[in-house]
Design goal:
3-stranded mixed sheet, homodimer, Tetracycline Repressor, domain 2, mainly alpha, CBS-domain
Chain lengths: 445, 445
């Protein structure tokens, strides 16, 4: 964790905030230059707000002699993030700048995947023994605070083998009578996470419960570190951004918009865009299949965009609801049937709503005879009936696709608005032309 | 804040988790019944994980005599959230169940809007005086811990008028030499939020900095409470869900998917769906305008879904990027021109990519002569040219619309995938038919 309160003296704030604002348009060399002009306090303030990538670039941009003090400013979990950014041949040089203990801790952290609880945790936490008195524990705590502990919220009670026996919140420790033993005030039924748990699961735990830190243990129940809530806020933001981008029909960027290079941007967007385009080509095939009907009743073509987009829109609504509900845990995989029943009702009613609007639009239009021909009434039936079918299909496809993806162990957020729209477009055309042949056979077709 | 460590004894876990899993399919009466069957410890565990709405329904579902102890379990900020859920005529009765001090605090909190920092804050924090010694402060802290403080991370140094003078983290307080005065170890350059600040701004502050609590002051600089990071995790999740739902083309639900009634669901989805439908009707008007061209070259209609959906997809990508970048602060309003320049480049290149794929598709298709007629080459030019135009327009419209909405003080997240798609559909048709008349005039048209 960074310092808990930022210093912000009035005369220099101007310079810091200016550098901060211009940050993403500056080259690394310019950033380093600006950074070195700041007073140390301001520079530290800025340093802690940077991403690990920027911290890495800044540190390696500084003269060799200045690097050590910046790297040593970071707690082991953040230092490990910086090391992750370094290519293999540079990492050794940076690791050598750390003090021995931190280097050992960082090495252990680097063994974990970045997205695991182990990659997120801080190996420094407050340890007490079960047979200390409350008073002993508090003064022991004062000693540890002087050394290397960043987060003071809970003390973790471990045995000699580092096995986690219990937790005592500082609040309870402080409120307890002085003579009591730690084992008498500690809680023993704990919520812990495994060092190999995924960070998304960890963040859901924080969202469901109101704690500020959770202990990380290995498969043998040995205490490895703590994940603190401040790291989780970033995780939650990041995961929401990733989900939003996937939902918008592209790969997650993994970096701020303005920091992504044009070729990178093309790669992340072009892939899905091409895939969707190839899928959408089926509409041309479907249309060609109905070319005969189109030729006879060109009026049918007028409503094609209206109908397929209504299916896409209702599908986008349904999939956004379910993707998000799955992400925050409001809906579980086993709820799929309840969701389907709901969407069956909601989709039908929404379809009827649009169908009525569509029909009215055709029937009350002053030039309906000229625009749509003498059979405008039958055409309005065709449009209304298709809208019910398309909106219903959109709602069902949009709501079920995320479940199918989750079941296949893929990310439900890939059930993006464009993906669902593409799926629905082809089906929408088939529904529309089927309805047309029902209502217009022998009249126009 | 809820208790910092959850108790979870093995024999009863089964029942709690069962009730928790079934929660959203149970009626209020069934919830109350199940809840009352739980041992007190487990019931408390469950109670703290509930939303304010569920807590309210549970409390009012309990016999009158049992309500007080549950309501009093809540810290003032959470109690205020429960009161928000109560209709005006019930609120007085519930307020009467609180102890005097909490009632005063809750009344003060209710004066704030729910989404303000004031509505989010906890009025209970650790207060110390600047001229206490570190030792005095620590033992004063132990006394306060026994009383009513939930969050122990910082002590706030206030003068007699409650004006905030400085902050000292417990870590620094613990690490300081015993004889020092609080004023010597406190930090005086503070980051504070105003009680009237929006919760989204507060959550951005937490995401940018690594603190666990931030002091809330009024316009006169008087300390009113603290916002703690655990409340922010929920805010970040909620805001991300709201944004996602708006982006999916609907009103935010404000409740878990399965808890929203069908009429509510219809209202939240039907409104936007109808509005988009009315907008999309312009496509029928545009198509009617080009009916003459369509009649002459029915082959043109085959590519309409393909072309307009490509515009919609690229628009969805661009708007999702910018909506999210604005929400997390990666991009500011003043960056609009830089974004436009980028999207101009990216949109053109993506358009060229799709144009090439589209052209190839037409040219290499074995039955191209039969399907598209003898002028298939010219048609492939028309399609490719239109794709460049449509994808470029989609990228520009999708990226600029969120800026325009923000500028108009509307929520950028309303630049939803369906909204952008609708906007692009009409333009896409115009681009397509213009391209057609360029390439096919005198040949097919």
């Amino acid at each position: 964790m960074a310092p808990e309160v930022e210093t912000q003296s009035n005369d220099e704030t101007f310079v810091v905030s200016e550098l901060q604002d211009a940050w993403h348009i500056l080259s690394t060399a310019e950033r380093v230059e600006g950074f070195r002009l700041l007073p140390r306090g301001d520079a530290e303030e800025l340093f802690f707000t940077l991403t690990a990538r920027d911290q890495y670039e800044l540190i390696t941009g500084l003269p060799v002699g200045e690097r050590r003090s910046w790297l040593r400013l970071l707690p082991p979990d953040d230092a490990a993030d910086v090391m992750q950014e370094a290519p293999d041949d540079e990492r050794g040089g940076l690791m050598a700048l750390l003090d021995d203990q931190t280097r050992k801790e960082v090495t252990a952290l680097l063994a974990y995947a970045e997205d695991d609880a182990g990659g997120l945790m801080n190996p420094r936490y407050v340890r007490v023994r079960p047979d200390m008195t409350v008073d002993e524990a508090i003064s022991y705590l004062r000693k540890q605070a002087r050394e290397r502990i960043e987060t003071l919220a809970y003390a973790y009670v471990c045995d000699a083998q580092q096995k986690l026996l219990g937790v005592v919140s500082f609040r309870d420790l402080f409120a307890a009578q002085q003579g009591k033993l730690v084992r008498d005030v500690m809680k023993t039924d704990l919520i812990t996470v495994l060092d190999t748990d995924d960070q998304e699961a960890v963040s859901r735990l924080f969202a469901d419960h109101d704690f500020v830190a959770v202990p990380v243990v290995d498969a043998q129940g040995r205490m490895k570190g703590i994940v603190t809530i401040d790291d989780i806020v970033e995780v939650v933001q990041e995961e929401a951004t990733e989900d939003a981008q996937k939902f918008g029909g592209m790969e997650a960027l993994d970096a701020p918009y303005l920091d992504v290079s044009i070729p990178q941007m093309l790669k992340k967007r072009g892939g899905w865009l091409s895939a969707l385009f190839l899928g959408e080509m089926l509409t041309a095939t479907a249309m060609a299949y109905f070319e005969h009907e189109l030729q006879r009743a060109i009026v049918l073509s007028l409503f094609i965009p209206l109908i397929i987009s209504s299916g896409g829109n209702s599908g986008s609504q349904a999939s956004t609801l379910i993707v998000r509900a799955l992400a925050v845990g409001d809906v579980k995989l086993r709820d799929w049937f309840r969701v389907m029943r709901r969407e069956l009702v909601v989709g039908t009613l929404l379809g009827v709503l649009l169908g009525i609007i569509g029909m009215l639009r055709i029937l009350v239009w002053p030039t309906r005879n000229k625009l749509y021909g003498e059979h405008y009434l039958l055409i309005s039936f065709t449009v209304a009936f298709s809208l019910v079918g398309v909106v219903l299909f959109g709602s069902l496809a949009g709501s079920m696709l995320p479940f199918i993806l989750r079941k296949l162990r893929l990310d439900p957020a890939s059930a993006s608005a464009p993906f669902v729209a593409t799926l629905v477009d082809v089906t929408g055309l088939i529904i529309y032309f089927t309805a047309a042949s029902m209502f217009l056979r022998g009249v126009l077709l």
